[in-house]
Here is the input.
Amino acid sequence: MPNFVMSYLGSTVTPGQAGNQFWALIYVLIIFAGVSVAVVAMNWIERKALAHFQIRLGPMRVGPHGLLQPIADALKLMLKEDIIPAEADQFVFWVAPLIGLLAAFAVYTVIPFGPSQAVSDMNIGILFMLGVSSLGALGIVVAGWASNSHYPLIGALRSTAQMVSYEVAMGLAVVSAVLMTSLNSTGTGTLSMIGIVQAQQQQGTWFIFKFFPLGLLAFMIFAIAMIAETNRAPFDMAEAESELTAGYHTEYSGLRWSLFMLAEYAAMIAVSSIAVTLWLGGWMRPFPNLLQAPLWEFTFSLFPGLTFLGLAAIAGVGTARMPSHSFFRIQRIGLGVFASLLASIALLLLLIAVAGRSADTSIAARFSEGIGYVYWFVLKVAIFMYLFIWYRATWPRYRFDQLMRVGWKVLLPISLGVLIATAIVGVIIS
Amino acid sequence: MNAPAKDGTQDVSKPWQSEKPYLDSNELIINMGPQHPATHGVLRVILKLDGERVLGTECVIGYLHRGVEKIAENRTYAMFNPYVDRMDYVAAVSNGLGYCEAVEKLLNVEAPPRAKYIRVILTELNRIASHQLWLGTHALDIGAMTPLFYTFRDREEILKIFERYCGARLTAHAFRIGGCQYETYAGFEKDVKNFLTFVAPKIDEYEALLTTNRIWLERTKNVGVISAADAIALGVTGPVLRASGVKWDLRKAQPYAAYSDFDFEIPVGTRGDTYDRYLVRMAEMRQSLGIIEQAVNAIPEGPIMAKVPKVIKPPVGEIYHSIEAPKGELGYFIVSDGSTQPYRLRVRPPSFVNLQALDIMVRGLLVADVVAVIGTIDIVLGEVDR
Amino acid sequence: MVPITTFHYLVVAAALFVLGVIGVLTRRNVVIVLMSIELILNAVNLNLVAFSRMWGNLNGQVFSIFITVDAAAEAAAGLGILIAFFRNKETINVDEIDLLKW
Amino acid sequence: MNPVLNSALNTTINPGMAPVATPFFFYLLAGLAIAGGVLVITRRNSVHSALALIGTLLSVAGLYLMLYAPFVAAAQIIVYAGGIMVLFLFVIMLVNIERVSKERRFNRIWPAGVSAACGLMALFVFAFVKGKALFPDRLMTLRESSNTQEIATMLYGERGKMGQYSFGQYTFTFEIASLLLLVAILGAVIMTKKKM
Here is the structure.
């Protein structure tokens, strides 16, 4: 058994490609567990960051600094009564959140966390991603319809129209990024996500910096379309409580409603990881070609350990400054345990990094390399997540017709222009 | 949000059963019900819609009517003073100032200079507080969540000063007929000065967040436009009138309570849209800071209460006295029959009059803009319904 | 288990095709008729890809993309007619659409 | 026998890579597709039949993947399931189907329709049985990773090759297809625009 496991730990081919269903299943489980943890963490970070933007503290009561708040919310939603409106369509009402969830999670089979750390490396990676993200709109339309009342229906029609129109701009931005992959020496582009990142590695630049203004422009268009695609921040027409129409998920309650929220957060993470893969050089650490020296290699491999050490330090300071009143005793213990957990992970990562440095061929080296890939990828996605929260705190909401005008009359022409310009520049240069 | 009240009988139990499918919805009457989050209190607006565009509105008010004017006829002048604060509960101090000055005019008694200065300082502080509350809720209606918390944090400082001066934060029964009840507490000038230095950069913070914010511009520019002629015809006053380009401010036009001693400008807008009203109110906040600073530096010594008989029996007659409240011209028309209780007391609330302009401003806009326009007229239902 | 041959795919495509034809012929609701046409076009696509797989060259797959494009155009036009018609006659029942000019 | 068929039949065919999926997946997807098809034409509520159609489309996309046609599968998911079905659902909701579902589903002459369809099915079966020899039951080798690239080159020619600009076989047809789409868009917009 151990060599079977070793064969896959060290393998340079994604389980999907190797055709090994068992190992692919384990990857799927790891990724979905990871995404769920990320969604829980995102929920906590969003509430706390939004609060501190607005000079308030955010959840502090449930667990130390509100750390257990997301879990409490999840439990509450599970225990809440699950009301199905009268004359609503039982089957469709039940299926709608599942479609949304399916669309949000299916994208993860394609996202590359590392050269071999992805569920499967489809050679139509990007196309699959675009297709599945358009399925999300179906879930919302059907949810709005099944709630059998005017305003969720209007809300659903609006948010679907928004998703469909921004999907066009998003698709064109993605195409211009894919075009860049084919303008290298070999002349054959690739749709597979791992191939795109490797193309960026070969060409030595992230696509955001390639053909200077074009890469950045395409990235900006994708970033804007991405927010509209997940109904977030300035484009959150659906949950606009001050407007007349309520969101498509007003009639949902309890667990069903939490499925929608899970789908929304998962879609956010999925879409931003696609942006990272396409423009910010997926799992590549910064300056992979310039700083080749083994010393640089070692310092960069220390980063994961250091970040966890930093988190552990923050949690430690939190425990120290916890007031000594008896009420806070449990919270202090809880935070202390959390801090020590983070510290031990940090220690483990540093150990692997050091071990990997000493004997290059050993498993530790491969392990620390894998961790490095995943770390850099997750770090970039985390930065995107913070952007989502930042937008939500600062921007007012677009009116629906302005939103559609921006989608069709501003984003679409620019993305077409960028696509044509990239093609021309590509043909001229290569 | 109650189900759409159609003029025809419509089976309310199944809202889904509207005869006209949504596709080619013609005349649709929607209720922005009394408990809608964006109607600043209990105002019901019946919107006549064609699809998304507003054809006409009809405001149903009276949900907060307490019959204040009728009560005034059975109260003595001094007893009625606290009622006045409950009308525009956001700018309670300026209500009190208006009432006291009206009665003083009836009694032709003059408040001593020190009382006048204290009154100016507190009223201007109240104007800033009212504008801050307006900005917070208005931005929230349009979707920006953060300004609400900034404005409420700063408004808290003002309410602390009120509390220390007269014990109440919101409905501060600060003034009495003939002057002020309380001498300023020990650190009053210091607190006000600290407040001035504290709030000046904060207003820049609001401006930084919203004034050049593209989406804010898009949601407020050319929305809810009212021309100067319409404004004057409707009797609209206050920032709404000034935003349409009419330079009319009672503090300058009919100076009262020591305003003639201070110099300050009147901010005026040009197009009369939501963005101009936003700019006018922000500039007004800065002007108020200037006034308070001049007042605090030059506050005279001396008595704070004029000689007013214990039982106030004004001579027979009637007077109308109006002041510049944060929302517009707040007027008191008192008819006295020589007894201790007014024969008739009529209040001209600015919000009630400004609300008439809603219909003109909103016609042809989209439903989402109705929310923004109600916010920019800055109405308080306590004052509208009295 | 006998390996999957092209023949199996043809049977599935034929079944879908027949279902589509039944849908078109028997249903009264225009939307369902349009959906059955989509079903038929899908069956045709499946056949094309199966043959392209059998012959080993890609003409079949390229042609199936053209069929998808055509299906999209047909759906857009069909639904456009449906909406325009529904606005005048309040019904989307195939039997009642019997006037050439209304 | 026509020459093309001959050349195909006797080319040396090596048994290609193991088919991507076991027969189990084929029967599963085929079953789903046919079940979805049946649901589409029998459901009283058109949103249910729309969902069934989405199920069929996705399972047929799965069949494409088994036929080494990932590009067509992705196009199917994007255009069909993501685009056309959203359009269908939009129209179903805008046209307020509630009243229509009360009326009879099948028209009066449904036996004629079904018998015609059965005749058609008989014709297919006859053709399949007779022409068994036409369909060699061995699998052609088609490298999976290549064909997205080849489709692109067929559609649009070798763009990347150092500036050589040669049209693929189907570039012209591709332009006509986009023209068809343009006509359809114009038609739909003109028909549905309210008389503003």
User: Anything to note?
Assistant: Chain A has three domains: 19-76, 80-284+402-430, 286-397.
